Amino acid sequence: MICPKSLRMAHEEVQKNIFAMIPEKWDRLYLYASITDHFNNLQTGEMFFFYYPKGVLKKNPINVYEVPVKFNLDENQYFKLADELFNSIKKLRLECQEQGEELWTNLTISIEKLKYRVEYSYDDLNSSEFDSDSRHLIWEYTYLDIPYESLNKKERNIINEYLKLEKKQTKIFELPLYDQGTYQKIESVKHIEKNLKFVTDKKIEEMKFINTYVPKSQILNKKN
Question: Mean pLDDT per 10-residue run, the chain (224 residues)?
Fold first, then answer.
């Protein structure tokens, strides 16, 4: 498969921004992002991803938005990295369009065993039978191997409805993994200034419930 240089560079930028958000060694990760177009050149979107820490023992996936609390990082600085990542995904979408590809609405990025894989989906999210929370549950069930038995009745009903549906069109794109090097960006967050203001106890409690990050700059944001 021939990949234009500009498209390859767009994917590499996404990879570099992903690596910048993980401050420890990891084995694999899965990321979801959506970009929905509306009237008057408005867009909405969301993004979330999980990684599995490296180790001999089986570990549960880490919600990347719990990283600031887990590693004592400045929340505002860390979420700037999330904005950079989401913006690079937006740029990737525009580059795909420039290359004449069908405009996707959401994607899943998986990185494991030194392989970078992107699954593009073309669902009409504006008229989807599932709301954002339900799509989040379906995605976690699909990619994070959540046991069906661990779901409550409402969650099982959502999964059952999803499994009844005919699988929609997706497109798979793969590239060799970009050389991630060191965690330079995450280190810069740790040492951004001597008097960092770390999150308060109240904020820590709030962070426990964070599952999805919706970049403020992307909510009802005009296209560049």
Answer: 83 94 93 88 88 83 94 93 96 93 94 92 87 93 93 96 84 78 47 38 42 47 41
Is the Cβ–Cβ distance between 118 and 11 less than 8 Å? yes
H or E stretch at 133: helix 132-143
Residues contacting residue 205 through CB under 8 Å, at least 6 positions apart: none
Contact indicator for 45, 215 with CB cutoff of 8 Å? yes
Please tell me the distance from the alpha carbon of residue 135 to that of residue 140, in angstroms, as a whole number: 9
| Angstrom distance (rounded) from CA 40 to CA 155 | 35
User: What integer pLDDT is reported at residue 2 of this predicted model?
Assistant: 65
Task: Give the residue among 17, 199, 8, 5 at the shortest CA–CA distance from 92.
Answer: 8
CA terminus-to-terminus distance, the chain: 30
Q: Which pLDDT score is estimated for 214?
A: 55
Q: Please report, for residues 69, 78, 101, 214, 217, the alpha-carbon distance to residue 202 in angstroms, rounded to integers and kept in the order given.
A: 12, 18, 45, 21, 25
Domains and CATH numbers, the chain: 5-123+169-222 (3.30.500.20), 125-167 (no CATH)
